[in-house]
Amino acid sequence: MKSATENLLKIEDLHASVAGKKILNGLTLSVARGEVHAIMGPNGSGKSTLASVLAGRPGYEVTAGSVTFQGRDLLALPPEERARAGLFLGFQYPVEIPGVNNVYLLKAALNAARKEHGLPEVDAFEFLQLVRGKMALMRMEDSFLSRGVNEGFSGGEKKRNEILQMLVLEPALAILDETDSGLDIDALKVVAAGVNSLRSPERACVLVTHYQRLLEYVVPDFVHVLVRGRIVKSGDRTLALELEQRGYDWVSGEAA
Amino acid sequence: MSTTLTSRIAADYALSAPAAGQRRAAALAALTAQGLPTSRDENWKYANLRSLERLRFVPAAAGAPADAALLPAPVPGFTRYVFLDGRFAPGLSAAPAGPFSTLAGAPEVAGPDPGGRGADERFALLNEAFATDGGHIRLTAAAAPARLEVVFLARTEAEQGTSYPRLEITLAAGARLELIERHVSAADAGSFVTSALDITLGKDAALTHYRLQSLSATSVLFDTLSATLGPAAHYRLHAISTGGQSAHSTQVLRLAGEGAHLSMAVAALGDAQQVQGSFALVEHVAPRARTEQLFRGIAAGRSRIAFNGKIVVAAGAPGTDSQQSLRGLLAGAGAEIDVRPQLEIYTDDVRCSHGASAGKLDDNMLFYLLSRGLERTEALRLLKWAFLADAFARIEVPELRRQIEENLAAALKDRALKELL
């Protein structure tokens, strides 16, 4: 068993661009097991780009720097191997895939992870028990299982479905990209309960968010402020409250 | 049509049909007058017409009975009738009874007037001129709903003669039929198949028609489906085409009665050098009729897939409601897809919508699946599956659906999964 304080994710001097435009400009961040980090920042600061680069979304070019995940060079891995290594991206805009049903995707994803760990495919009965339990936590009805992936889901349903997938996969590191956006307060609480249920000394979570509202329910250990592709300020949860009061101009001004 | 081809057809006809009656002779005359299409003809651009040069038009000779093991698994609840190279195979079939009879040696009795066939139905004329057998399904107004399966098994090599499957279906007012129609090959025989189906639906009649074409990869198929829908008749057509070196299907569907309803869903898969082409002509000639047309095609390898869906709304068809959704997916570097919706409207007060697209799989969907840890090949297969799903999602016969899903899954798995992005 690896020690709980070991760095799970180590990002060093990361530079990345999208369609020739530089978005990340020397970002450095370390996340240890057991920690919850919040990354906040104004629109266009590079928050979602960071999440996409970590998950391996095509179209994002890393021009300098390194990312180590559980001791491996994360950037050398294709997206599916990153996922199987224990990295989970909760999408800001979950994709609708009509014709592929939720239960199929959940099972295929879980089996991919199990295969990585040398485990046999999950037993069909046990799988349903597991999923139903997680669905109850996410206040999702049984009918979700047979529907197409995110097909016709409301914004809140899509976000809950992301968290459901995360709960089933139990990743070592979850990166949740604006999972709180577009949620009403009840849905936000459900999502937060889901995230909190997965907190453990073995796992870590990076919350990418514009507002501190989510952080009232998922209390972070660290808060980082991202401006123009770099972390310009780090602190504890009180930093989020301060940002809420003083606005991003405060740190942007300091960074300039 | 080249004179050579015309004269070869006439010569083969003289050889094979010395005693043919008036109707067959009329079909030959109409065919000779119109000529077979050429590749310059827009609706036949993708058909492998060159294959005609080396074919024999005489009907395949009746051979030894075929082995039942060649047939697909039966579907519970459906009475099965089998034709071998277009000839009824009693040893493999239920006894003709009730709504089903054979045309045995007298294909003269029913069907539309050969002279009334349009240019798109020329291969149906070829079938009519040469077919010596076929199936005839007739449901009277008082008949109980029927579930029938007709299997056309092609065994003879193209050089030895042509297989002429033929089916005539008449449903009287209010009659209901569920029909499975299959075109399969014996082993890997490379056959030439020219099939013709004629359907007449009376008032309030309902036909649910499953067409599954999975001929061998060396077979050539020209298929013509002609249907006329009476008032408030409902025709549901599910066609799935995966076989043949070249398979061309023409559908001429006429909504002739007020409130008639056509819902058709067609799926085609192509790989290697396969060519799968469809021309669907839907004619709205009566008021307040409805059409939903859906096509999904996946072209892998160097295959070519075409679907040309033309809907004509005549002056006498106000209140027409038609929807077309035609989509093609390119899954091979040398593959070609051509989906074309066409609308001709000669009246006001219509609601016609169409959507057509041809392209690659959605990058965002693929990334989403990969980000959940799925293997790239599995993610691609799943997305292809999802792409096709619309075309068979509403098949309500569980065992049939299972067979179709199994066949499609096997087809997608076995075919080289080329990198799409």
Word description of this protein:
The complex is a heterodimer of chains A (256) and B (421). Chain A has 256 residues and is of the alpha/beta class. Chain A has a single domain, classed as P-loop containing nucleotide triphosphate hydrolases (Rossmann fold). In chain A, 35% of the residues lie in helices and 29% in strands. Chain A is built from eight helices and twelve strands. Chain A has helices spanning 47-55, 79-84, 102-116, 124-137, 155-169, 185-197, 237-246, 248-255; strands spanning 7-18, 21-32, 36-40, 60-69, 72-73, 87-90, 97-101, 148-149, 173-177, 204-209, 222-227, 230-235. In chain A, strands 6-9-10-3-11-12 form a six-stranded mixed β-sheet, with helices on both faces. In chain A, strands 2-1-4-5 form a four-stranded antiparallel β-sheet. A two-stranded antiparallel sheet of chain A has the order 7-8. The radius of gyration of chain A is 18 Å and the shape is globular. The model of chain A has no long low-confidence stretch (mean pLDDT 92). Chain B has one domain (3-361, 394-408). Chain B is built from six helices and 20 strands. Chain B has a ten-stranded mixed β-sheet, covered by helices on one side. In chain B, a hairpin with a 2-residue loop joins β1 and β2. The N and C termini of chain B lie far apart (42 Å). The chains are: A alpha/beta (256), B alpha/beta (421). The A-B interface holds A 55-58, 78-80, 82-84, 88-89, 91, 94-95, 97-100, 104-105, 108-109, 112-113, 116, 148-149, 165, 169 and B 362-365, 367-376, 378-379, 382-383, 385-390, 393, 421.
